[in-house]
Specification:
alpha/beta, 8-stranded mixed β-sheet, 9 helices, 32% helix, elongated
Length: 355
């Protein structure tokens, strides 16, 4: 029979010394094609699910994007289309996550404002620095609620705080300003100007305060040391909840500054809730060294008056200066525990690790 047109084309190619192509129907199917096709489908789906789950659990932390992205790259080394689909899935999941209305970075870390379940929260890294109900801006929540240890302190000192000067080291969202009363004067000492801008723009505590509130930017210890006034009826230190703490605010020299700034019956209150550090050991030694009495209310599981399980320490020159807290069994005496106080020359953070 006469050769077909296809056979004539193949004969012509062979005469030119070229290798004839194998018909597609006769080509062997790659052994891994089924697995590759499955990965083409599963990688984008897995990337979407992983980004969504990690984003919800880690509150938008870099792991929420980093882990799925690395997995996509590893599983798509020779498949650009698969990698592209995986990255698209990650971007889609990230866009659908509950939003962060504001996110910024300062010298001191990443700040993030997030709205969820009717609550607005300020995160510094992974640490919560304040929570506010969107329907009740300016009303203290979580660490600072009226039933919390700090709320109890304001109630106990209320008779003495009329017309008082109240100082707060560490601004957060300005939640404590909810306790300000007419006739008082409040001063916040905040080292991060970005925190001040976020608190003023995104949270309502400062704007709704019932007393004048001043924000002094810079290192609190240096600012207090430069002041010649001895007019602080209450000084609150709220700068120790993050993973990295300012140890220079807990030394013998720092407590000498606080003592000079307080009135004779003034009270020093320190928020020491921390995931890793047992700062009560430091404060017991510091109080004894400074000649101050100290009491602590620890955050315990199941305490309805302290649902956030915050731990606070109060100090004063005399027990009577602490008002009702001096006789409240929830506020235990805090002793020195045989430790030497931290100083500017020596502060051993590892010795209190394990909070």
């Amino acid at each position: 029979p006469a050769p077909t047109e296809k056979e004539r084309e193949l004969a012509f190619l062979r005469s030119l010394g070229a290798q004839a192509p194998i018909p597609a129907a006769d080509q062997p199917r790659p052994s891994g094609s089924t697995a590759s096709a499955a990965l083409d489908v599963m990688v984008p789906i897995g990337a979407f699910v992983a980004t969504w789950v990690l984003g919800r659990r880690l509150l938008g932390a870099p792991l929420a994007l980093g882990v799925p992205l690395l997995a996509c790259i590893f599983l798509s080394l020779r498949a650009r289309a698969r990698l592209g689909l995986g990255m698209l899935a990650i971007a889609l999941a990230a866009a659908l996550l509950p939003g962060a209305p504001y996110r910024t970075r300062s010298f001191f870390g990443v700040l993030r404002v997030e709205d969820r379940g009717g609550m607005r929260t300020l995160f510094h890294g992974t640490t919560i620095h304040g929570v506010e109900r969107l329907a009740e801006p300016g009303e203290p929540q979580l660490y600072y609620g009226h039933a919390s240890p700090i709320g109890q302190l304001f109630t106990a000192l209320e008779p003495r705080l009329g017309g008082a000067h109240v100082g707060v080291v560490g601004l957060g969202i300005g939640a404590l300003a909810a306790y300000a009363e007419p006739g008082q004067r409040w001063t916040y000492y905040e080292i991060d100007a970005t925190v001040a801008r976020v608190a003023q723009r995104w949270f309502g505590g400062l704007a709704r305060a019932r007393a004048p509130v001043e924000i002094v930017l810079g290192d609190a210890r240096l600012t207090l040391a430069r002041s010649a006034k001895r007019d602080l009826q209450l000084l609150i230190l709220d700068a120790f909840s993050s993973d990295a703490i300012p140890t220079h605010l807990l030394t013998r020299e720092a407590f000498a500054v606080y003592r000079r700034g307080l009135t004779d019956d003034g009270v020093l209150a320190i928020h020491i809730s921390n995931r890793y550090l047992k700062l009560d050991l430091v404060l017991g030694a510091a109080a004894a060294d400074a000649g101050l009495v100290a009491r602590i209310r620890r955050g315990t599981r199941g305490d309805p008056t302290n649902p956030a399980r915050t731990t606070w320490v109060v100090m004063a020159r005399r027990e009577a200066d602490l008002g009702a807290l001096a006789s409240d069994p929830r506020w235990e005496p805090l002793g020195a525990s045989g430790r030497a106080p931290w100083t500017d020359d020596f502060a051993n953070v590892l010795s209190v690790f394990g909070g």
